[in-house]
Design a protein that fits this description.
Layout: H1 3-86, H2 102-109, E1 113-116, E2 119-122, E3 125-126, E4 131-133, H3 145-161, E5 168-172, E6 178-181, E7 183-184, H4 187-197, E8 209-210, E9 214-215, E10 222-231, E11 237-246, H5 247-250, H6 257-260, E12 265-274, E13 279-288, E14 298-299, E15 306-307, H7 312-323, E16 328-334, E17 337-345, E18 352-358, H8 359-362, H9 364-403, H10 408-421, H11 436-471, E19 483-489, E20 497-506, E21 509-519, H12 523-541, H13 547-562, E22 569-577, E23 582-587, E24 592-596, E25 601-605, E26 622-625, E27 633-637, H14 653-663, H15 669-684, E28 693-699
Antiparallel strand pairs: 1-2, 3-7, 4-6, 5-6, 5-11, 8-10, 9-10, 10-11, 12-13, 12-18, 13-14, 13-15, 16-17, 17-18, 19-28, 20-21, 21-22, 22-23, 23-26, 24-25, 24-27, 27-28
Helix pairs in contact: 1-3, 1-9, 10-11, 11-12, 12-13
GO cellular component, one term: membrane
InterPro entries: Bact_Sigma-Reg, HAMP_dom, PPM-type-like_dom_sf, PPM-type_phosphatase-like_dom
Protein name: Serine/threonine protein phosphatase
Length: about 700
């Protein structure tokens, strides 16, 4: 950094540092205040909302029980009235025509429409008549129409006493026929409705029963069905009567929920096992329509839908609470938003009403307060920015004026150095004076030619490094489910270690040969020998011949290359086969290790063989092992691993390597290698790496 800029920085620090300190302190305090207020307010609002929602679900459960008891009582009462009509003490005179209350018909008609294609379609309802269905579920007319006429006032009375609760009333007569009140004039659709009912038990229900939520085929709405038996004077079961209630009529969303959020989601759920994951989850039975015009109307999903949360722990706790038929409020994410989940049981069959409230709606006021404070902080920062800018402009002008008085020679040196940095080694510094800066200029001029020479050497080494790195595999291979990974770490720009993966076809089928080699020495000569050996191996191993014959041929080629040079190469070849047999050649290389986790034991893949390049007459032993156990780990490495020295001169050793393999046996091959490299770096510390490191890990598939 030039003196001019040092002077500039000094003046800026003297003048601007106090402003920055004060501004930063105020900004930090205000920001902390805003965030603290927002956090406390948010926690308070969430706590109040949780307590409020819990009270709401408690009240809702109480109201729901009361309404269910009311419906059960009316259903039993209606059943007893029907028994009286059918078996001797009629409550309505035969021939009397039923006239529904005119002031309620208009309002009651609004509840009868079909939910189709995201909207609704009105249909005509006749409150003066019932639909009679035969045993096959099709519209018909009974010869004894007086029965329906006598029952009509009873059915109409229940309907108009509870117009929102009773959508349909069905009476199963002793002969198996059914009466449905009120009558829909489009009998074709009624036939569809009752074909749906025909899927119910063909015999009357023997006790008071609530159905699970189901889709009403007439309206498309989700409904409950409460059914009571009809008995004769002797107590024998003859039929039943059902009141069909819209889910929305029972499960009113409390108006108090809107105090917390207008975006609350109401869902009818039941704990069940998701067949796709075999996990216990919440199955959506019905969901309230979110359109304002269709409020309190519930729809069933077209296919199985499940409610989940990314917070597995809270979700599991909620499932356990539901299994105990408890009601509660919990906080956990829903999709991409944080939310409060309030739930209460609807019936004894494990159906729950679930309310999901976005937390962002609950803490909206707290967030507004935080944004206000942060806006004030931004305004403060803007004012401070103008002040700092004015001071900075003044200091810059002063610094440039003063620096020109004594930085001319320094600028010349800087210009020369920049030219050299860009590759212009012909640049020279022309300075005036013999002071220290002048002497520095002469030294730089003498340094430039030497620097040019070193740069040329470095560029050559970088090219060699890129070439050598391109010879190593980019991706690990896949072979019969084995997990394979390898890596080389050179101590210089280039090195003599090598690893490779060579797939081939043999008489026994397909196989994969894993090769790990170590050329004596380091640097460019070792890298050149490694490149030659790699080419020989790939061209010969790929031919499919026996590994011992291939290795002997490669050895002859390498002997021709290194004749009289004293160089050699150790090599370990491991062949994985389709028959769960491994073959290996050990050419002067350290034996590979095999770790069996089931026995916690290490064995070595030993064998006879000289390093490559020692003599053309060398022979190599082909070793085999059949029925390789599953989940074993094969380690092929170079001596740069266990012979690495720490700052104190201690060797890493094979015992540390074995302990690391034990500790990471459950990890992938790549993770094991990365863990080993980190362990070696930690062990090495500040000491220099004096040998190349190469390791290949093969994990056989599990059983």
């Amino acid at each position: 950094m030039g003196i001019r800029y040092k002077l500039l920085i000094l003046l800026l620090l003297i003048s601007l540092a106090p402003l920055f300190v004060v501004g930063a302190g105020v900004q930090k305090d205000l920001t902390h205040l805003g965030e603290g207020l927002a956090l406390r307010s948010s926690n308070t609002l969430i706590h109040k909302a949780s307590n409020g929602l819990k009270r709401i679900v408690v009240d809702h459960a109480r109201v729901l029980r009361r309404e269910k008891q009311l419906l059960e009582s009316n259903t039993l009462f209606l059943a007893s009235k029907i028994e009286g009509v059918l078996y001797g003490h009629a409550h309505s005179m035969p021939g009397m025509k039923y006239i529904p209350p005119a002031d309620q018909i208009s309002e009651a008609t609004k509840d009868y429409f079909s939910l189709r294609m995201g909207g609704w379609q009105d249909f005509k309802i006749d409150f003066n008549n019932v639909t009679t269905l035969g045993t096959d579920g099709r519209p018909t007319e009974l010869p004894s129409s007086s029965t329906s006429a006598m029952l009509l006032p009873l059915l109409g009375q229940v309907k108009f006493e509870y117009p929102k609760l009773a959508l349909w009333i069905e009476v199963r007569l002793p002969g198996g026929e059914k009466l449905v009140y009120p009558r829909r004039e489009a009998t074709m659709r009624m036939g569809m409705h009752m074909s749906r009912s025909a899927q119910k038990p063909s015999t009357p229900i023997n006790e008071l029963t609530w159905s699970l939520p189901e889709t009403d085929q007439q309206t498309g709405r989700i409904v409950f069905r409460v059914t009571a038996p009809i008995r004769d004077v002797k107590g024998k079961l003859q039929g039943d009567v059902s009141i069909i209630i819209p889910v929305g009529s029972l499960l009113h969303k409390s108006k108090h929920v809107d105090m917390f959020s207008k975006n609350a989601i109401s869902i009818l759920v039941s704990p069940d096992v998701d067949p796709t994951t075999n996990e216990s989850r919440l199955k959506v039975i019905a969901q309230e329509n979110t359109q304002k015009s269709m409020h309190d109307y519930w729809l069933a999903p077209e296919k199985d839908a499940w409610i989940t949360s990314p917070d597995a722990e809270q979700y599991s706790a909620m499932m356990q609470s539901m299994d105990a038929s408890s009601l509660n409020v919990t906080g956990m994410p829903y999709g991409n938003m944080d939310a409060l989940w309030a739930y209460a049981p609807v019936d004894q069959a494990g159906v729950f009403l679930l309310l999901i409230i976005p937390k962002t709606d609950i803490v909206k006021e707290a967030q507004s307060s935080k944004e206000f404070i942060l806006n004030q902080v931004d305004n403060h920062n803007t004012k401070m920015g103008f002040i700092v800018l004015a001071v900075a402009i003044f200091v810059l002008g002063l610094a440039f004026f003063l620096s020109r008085l004594f930085t001319r020679n320094i600028s010349e040196l800087a210009t020369t150095v920049r030219k050299v940095a860009k590759g212009d080694f012909s640049a020279r510094a022309v300075l005036h004076g013999k002071d220290e800066i002048g002497q520095l200029g002469e030294a730089i001029n003498q340094m430039i030619p030497e620097l040019e020479e070193r740069v040329n050497i470095k560029n050559s080494l970088e090219v060699a490094q890129e070439v050598q790195q391109s010879l190593l595999p980019i991706d690990a291979p896949t072979f019969l489910g084995a997990d394979i990974a390898a890596v080389s770490k050179y101590c210089d720009e280039t090195g003599g270690d090598y690893y490779g993966f060579i797939p081939r076809d043999t008489v026994d089928g397909k196989s994969l040969v894993v090769a790990v080699g170590d050329v004596s020495g380091h640097g460019i000569p070792a890298a050149l020998m490694m490149a030659s050996a790699r080419a020989y191996l790939r061209s010969n191993v790929g031919g499919g011949g026996r590994l011992d014959a291939v290795t002997e041929h490669v050895n002859e080629l390498i002997c021709d290359d290194v004749d009289q040079s004293g160089r050699f190469m150790t090599l370990f070849l491991l062949e994985l086969t389709e028959t769960n047999t491994i073959r290996w050649i050990r050419a002067g290389h350290d034996p590979a290790m095999v770790y069996d986790p089931s026995k916690d034991s290490f064995t070595e893949l030993a064998g006879e063989g000289l390093p490559l390049g020692v003599t053309k007459d060398a022979r190599f032993e082909l070793n085999e092992h059949h029925d390789l156990p599953p989940s074993v780990i094969i380690i092929i490495g170079t001596d740069g691993i266990w012979e690495m020295h720490s700052q104190n001169g201690e060797m890493f050793g094979k015992d540390r390597l074995k302990n690391l393999i034990r500790a990471t046996r459950a990890e992938s091959s790549d993770v094991i290698i990365q863990t080993l490299i980190k362990e070696l770096d930690t062990f090495q510390g500040e000491a220099e790496q004096d040998d190349d490191i190469t390791i290949a890990i093969i994990k056989t598939p599990t059983a």
